[in-house]
């Protein structure tokens, strides 16, 4: 989310000095309550969604689809992401969660390809 910043503005109050130059102690003089006003804007960035850690997917890949230990690596990064989230480090949690997600994707794609190849090999050997 991009933060929007607004420039500072000097807003002159009208009708305070009736066209006369401002003098100390009179309205219109800087520092006097009726003088110029500075308007400041503050932007607050609120993250609406906590970073995801993908622990359930990592556990599934670890116990069922663990090719090349990608499921174990994904589980480690998922736990690191959850620890960072509990510690309040949301950028670290996003980083570890993203790594866990990539490892889970690779593990899932690899096991799907290996399963497909296995089914094709079994089907070809039984057909002859």
Structure in a nutshell:
The chain is mainly alpha-helical and 128 residues long. The protein is 51% helix and 5% strand. The chain has 2 domains: 46 residues, no CATH class; 73 residues, no CATH class.
Give structural notes.
The structure is a single chain. The protein has helices at residues 55-63, 70-87, 90-127; strands at residues 9-11, 37-39. The protein is mainly alpha-helical. The chain has a two-stranded antiparallel sheet. Helix 1 runs antiparallel to helix 2 (70-87), helix 1 packs parallel to helix 3 and helix 2 runs antiparallel to helix 3 (90-127). The chain is elongated and about 85 Å long. The relative contact order is 0.11. The mean pLDDT is 79.
Keywords for this entry:
128 residues, mainly alpha, two-stranded antiparallel sheet, 3 helices, 51% helix, elongated
The number of distinct β-strands equals 2
Percentage of residues assigned to helices: 40-55%
Order of helices and strands: EEHHH
Strand content: under 5%
Number of helices: 3
Contiguous low-pLDDT stretches (5 residues minimum) are none
What class, by secondary structure content? mainly alpha
* Shape by Cα distribution: elongated
Please give the largest β-sheet. Answer: 2 strands, antiparallel
Distance between the termini: 60 Å
How many separate structural domains? Answer: 2
Q: In what order do the strands lie side by side in the largest sheet?
A: 1-2
Gyration radius, in Å: 31 Å
Residue-averaged pLDDT: 79
